[in-house]
Structures are given as structure tokens and as C-alpha cells.
């Protein structure tokens, strides 16, 4: 990987796919409870399924939550990437921030779906979310600083 290349724009669809992977996990884990005609009933169907293991149900519900959270933050992240690029923020900084954001989103998904059941790891999810949001804010701050430096 060359740090001379600006990878920041590529991380936007990658972050979207990271969020979507949680939807895919939830759907494939739901089995017969997923209805292609009414997909938004999956959570309710799984909750009513008496044969579903409680641990699997928890993972499905948390995967849906991780997917929703990814969708809630992707727009702000994409806007931050565009703002930082248009403002002329250094591509090395952009690469580091963008790849760090992607890493936090991947760890967020893992933490939310698989670590929440483990004692002592419950607090990891909000910490990782906070780190991902701090990266987004940093993109905007760097964009603002770059624009103001050129006034």
C-alpha cells in the first residue's frame, strides 16, 4: 500500500459494506424467520421463535443494531471525507483518519455482536463508537483549519 495514494474516498463504500455485513449476518442467521416479502419483521419473527437459541437471538438483534448504527453514521462520515478532500487536507492525514475510521467500524461491529455477552467487554462498544465519531469530527476540524489557513 502506497501512502502516496489517497484512499479516503474508497473507505466510504468500504464502511457502508461493513455496516451492510451486519444486515447480511442477521438475515442469514435468522433462517426461516426472515421473510423476503416483509424483511423488517425479522427481529419480531426471531423474538417469537421459541426454538431459537437466546444467544443467537441476541447476536441477530445486535447485528441489526450495528447495521442501523452504521447507516446512521455513514452520511456524516462521507461528508467529512468530502469536506477534508475539498479543503485540501494532507492525504497522509486523510488516509490515517479514513483507515482508522474503517477499523473502528469493523471493531464496533465485532464488539457489538460478539463481545457484549462476555463479562468485562460491555463497555467496549460505546468506546469504539466514540472513537469513530471523534475521527469524523477530526475530519471536519481539519477541513475547517485547512480552509481558514488559505483565507
Q: Unreliable stretches, pLDDT < 50, 5 or more residues?
A: none
- The count of helical stretches stands at 5
Helicity level, as a percent range?
A: over 70%
Structural class: mainly alpha
Shape: elongated
Q: Give the termini separation.
A: 34 Å
Rg over CA atoms: 18 Å
Beta percentage is under 5%
- Encode the helix/strand succession as letters: HHHHH
Average pLDDT metric: 93
What would you say this structure looks like, in words?
Its main location: membrane. The chain has 5 helices and no strands. It has helices at about 10-30, 40-50, 55-85, 90-115, 125-150. Helix 3 (about 55-85) runs antiparallel to helix 4 (about 90-115) and helix 3 packs parallel to helix 5. The longest helix is centred in the middle third of the chain and has 34 residues, at about 55-85. It starts with 7 loop residues before the first helix and ends with a helix. The relative contact order is 0.16. The mean pLDDT is about 95.
Tags for this model:
mainly alpha, 76% helix, 151 residues
Briefly say what this structure is.
Helices cover 76% and strands 0% of the residues.
Give the topology, please:
Layout: H1 8-30, H2 42-48, H3 54-87, H4 91-115, H5 124-149
Helix pairs in contact: 1-3, 1-4, 3-4, 3-5, 4-5
Amino acid at each position: 500500500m502506497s501512502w502516496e495514494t489517497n484512499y479516503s474516498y474508497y473507505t466510504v463504500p468500504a464502511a457502508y459494506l461493513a455496516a451492510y455485513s451486519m444486515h447480511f449476518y442477521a438475515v442469514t442467521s435468522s433462517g426461516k424467520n426472515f421473510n423476503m416479502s416483509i424483511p423488517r419483521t425479522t427481529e419480531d419473527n426471531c423474538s417469537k421463535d421459541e426454538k431459537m437459541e437466546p444467544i443467537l437471538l441476541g447476536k441477530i438483534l445486535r447485528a441489526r443494531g450495528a447495521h442501523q448504527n452504521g447507516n446512521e453514521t455513514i452520511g456524516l462520515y462521507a461528508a467529512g471525507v468530502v469536506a477534508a478532500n475539498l479543503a485540501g487536507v494532507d492525504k497522509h492525514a486523510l488516509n490515517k483518519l479514513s483507515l482508522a475510521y474503517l477499523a473502528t467500524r469493523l471493531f464496533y461491529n465485532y464488539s457489538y455482536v460478539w463481545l457484549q455477552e462476555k463479562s468485562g467487554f460491555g463497555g467496549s462498544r460505546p468506546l469504539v463508537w466514540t472513537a469513530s465519531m471523534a475521527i469524523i469530527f477530526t475530519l471536519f476540524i481539519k477541513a475547517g483549519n485547512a480552509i481558514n489557513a488559505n483565507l
